[in-house]
Structure formats: C-alpha cells, structure tokens
Description:
Number of helices: 19
Strand order of the largest sheet: 3-4-2-5-6-1-7
CATH superfamily of the largest domain: P-loop containing nucleotide triphosphate hydrolases
Helix content: 25-40%
Shape: elongated
Largest sheet: 7 strands, parallel
Oligomer: single chain
Amino acid sequence: xxxxxxxxxxxxxxxxxxxxxxxxxxxxxxxxxxxxxxxxxxxxxxxxxxxxxxxxxxxxxxxxxxxxxxxxxxxxxxxxxxxxxxxxxxxxxxxxxxxxxxxxxxxxxxxxxxxxxxxxxxxxxxxxxxxxxxxxxxxxxxxxxxxxxxxxxxxxxxxxxxxxxxxxxxxxxxxxxxxxxxxxxxxxxxxxxxxxxxxxxxxxxxxxxxxxxxxxxxxxxxxxxxxxxxxxxxxxxxxxxxxxxxxxxxxxxxxxxxxxxxxxxxxxxxxxxxxxxxxxxxxxxxxxxxxxxxxxxxxxxxxxxxxxxxxxxxxxxxxxxxxxxxxxxxxxxxxxxxxxxxxxxxxxxxxxxxxxxxxxxxxxxxxxxxxxxxxxxxxxxxxxxxxxxxxxxxxxxxxxxxxxxxxxxxxxxxxxxxxxxxxxxxxxxxxxxxxxxxxxxxxxxxxxxxxxxxxxxxxxxxxxxxxxxxxxxxxxxxxxxxxxxxxxxxxxxxxxxxxxxxxxxxxxxxxxx
Length: 513
C-alpha cells in the first residue's frame, strides 16, 4: 500500500491568498498554508510568526532537513508542528497508511504539551493523532497504533518499546521525524534508545532536530539522523544575552538559615501571581509542599516520583490557573508552555548555566514579560561568573531584613511535634546535602563550606539530624550530623558575616505589587 500523493500545480502565494502590500512579512498568511490549518491558527489567535517560526517553517515546508537552535519560549513547537501537519494534509495521509510523522519529546509533560497543541491545529483536518509515553496504558496505546495514528507524539522509551513489540504499528510510510529538546533527551539517558529508534525508522524521511544547546552528543545524534547538508538555524547566535529580553533577572544573597524565611515571605506576598519554584530533589519538593500547605500557603507540586496521572493533573491545574505556586524539580524545566508565569524562583540553584537558562525559560514566553529570582549563599557567588560567561545578565536584589517574616520558632516547634513533617524534613535535608555533594562546580558549591546548623535550621531543625550521604566519585557513604563545632560539621568562614550585613537580604529592585 502506498501513501496517496496529491497532484498540485504551483501557485503564486500572494495571488492565491489575495495578499496585498500591507500584509506583514512575518504573517502566517504569507506561508500559503492549507485552509484547515489557517482556520485553526486564526482560532488560536496567532497572527504573526516568531523569529524561529519565520526561519524554520519555509525550509521545512520545502522538505529540507533542519538543525535548529532556539531559546526556550521562542515558539518552536508551532515551527515544527505546522510543516508536519501540512505534509500530512498534502499527502492526504490516512490511518490505513500507518504513522506519517513522529515527534519525540524528552518528558511526558512536554509530550502532553505538544500533543495538546497538535490537537488544536488538527481540529479541521481529517488526520488522526495520538500520544505514547511511559506511565500510560500500553495496551490502549497499541490498539490505537494498530488502527493508524497519522501524527504521533512520543517519549523515547515507550516509542522504542512499540517499534520493537507492537505488531501492526506501521512506520514504513513515515515521512517526517521531529526530535525536540534533543540535548535534554540525551541528558536524561536516552542516547542508545534514540540510536535504535533512528535505525528502525525509514531512511527516506525528513528530519528536524531542535536543541537549545549544542553538545558533542547532540552533534553525534544530528549526524546519524539528518541527511547530509541540513539547514542550520540558530536564532540566538548573535544575541548579547542568552535569555529573553523581556525577562528581568536577579539574585539574592541569603545565608542558609534565612532561606526558607525569605521564600515564605516572598510567596505570601505573591499569592496573586503565578510562581514556579525550583528545588534540587523530589524530597525537597515533597517536604516544602507539605509544609507550605500545612501553614496556609497553598502550593502545587510536580516531581519525578509522582505517578503520571498525578503529574498530568497537576500540570494542567497550574497551567489553567490565573495565579498560584508550583514547586518542582527540573522535570518541569524544559519546554513546558505555561501561560503567564510571573516569577521563576530558583531556590536551589543548578550548577550549569544551560540549565539555569532552561529553568527561567518558563516565563517571558512568546513576547510576554516575566521575572526570575536566584537564591545564592555567600559562598556561591562565584556562580555569577559562569552565568556572565553564558550571557545571562543578573542584578542583585535586596530584601530588607525587617520585612522578612520571622517564623523560625513556629517552624521548629511544628517540625518537632509533627511526626510526618519531621520525617519528610529529614529526607529533604538529606537530599539537599546529597545534591550539593553531587554538584560539578565543587569550588563554588562546596559541601565543606556549608554551615550544617544553619542548613538544618532552614528545614526546621534546631540540631542537624544525622543522615547518610554519598560523597565523591568513589561512592563512599558518610554520616553528616553534629560535630564539636557549633556551626555544624564544618567551621564556617567569616565571609558570611562580611557579605550578609544588616540589610543584605532586601527588596530594592523587587516589587511585590
């Protein structure tokens, strides 16, 4: 069985669309898209293309392979979905032909996001669409694939599973492969799966590979997946900043024992805003969500230990909310398009400037404005040099010490008396130290520089609990807890006091209104 081709005669685009000189060059009308697609675009309220769309869509419509580098929030989802849908429409692709387009995404949340946009764009088309991902019902997925899914969104592991084990999953007529967030796919360990997927798919196809960062592994994946001489499109190579111009970014220098107090104060004052807070571990997200909800600061939480059904429900609840707070790990940092996020707070900083960029990419999307706040200890100020080298401009924010809610005693009493919160706090404390010990920039994020008494205080403990963590490449286990010094297991240096003077945690440049 062959895919039915559409015989078409070239038309002058402006004549066919009745364009006039007043039509903007970046208007979707200039692309000569099919009427069902244009109807969906109009219904979604899109009028003009972003830079990545204007540069990627024409060569993709012409059948070229593209290697794209674009900042998060640049509109690349539409940049690959529109040509994919037009390809299926032009070929009159039908379910009996199997799958014509496969879009590979690193996470289930991002896959759901892409699937949602595809559903809207295909509203007036006859082509079928579907999604396969880890955590979902595999049997139900297989039944749909056997009936024919023209456009398929997938996570790598589940896609490979179906390619190898689902009879009736037809990909011999595949015309296009999209690999979105390729760097992230490789970072989370899907390198071998991607190689197998590419080997199992037809060689005669169009391929689009998007990656926010260009690494050696991404280059290797591009070499085996793209045809020779792909078009390389980098929409941010000449920009002075690696992050969005509409993003106001700042950092606050805050010692460990005031971190939670500052976060609590900040969230209380911004309950009418949409805020995402990043933590370094699932246990930290879990504990802080339990604690904040217990003390009447309503928050949602999203992390990798949750079941898929819970993660999906949380994601859509926050996405549809006008205001609210979402606590999460980096599982939510890449690609998710959540409308109108006002603040990105990095409570636990990443040690990789690229991950910083991906995190703050959740705000100031698609031309909107947003703000980002990075928490740093005095000993972590060296991280700013790396951000500067990565073209990330930050200003120092100050929060007046008198404006920070002093709820430390209440926190300590709560953790002491509530068995479940105490247990959760201890796990979060252990995970924080474990994550800190795992940082690659050890000169900046040095676990021996931590004042454990102050760190423990931020989790509600008056005395550092004894916990086992793994230190260094040898994987040896160490018990961290009380030592003879009053500062915890390390003797704390005086630069805390020098940098953190009377007003060092203030809000000179931050407006709460």
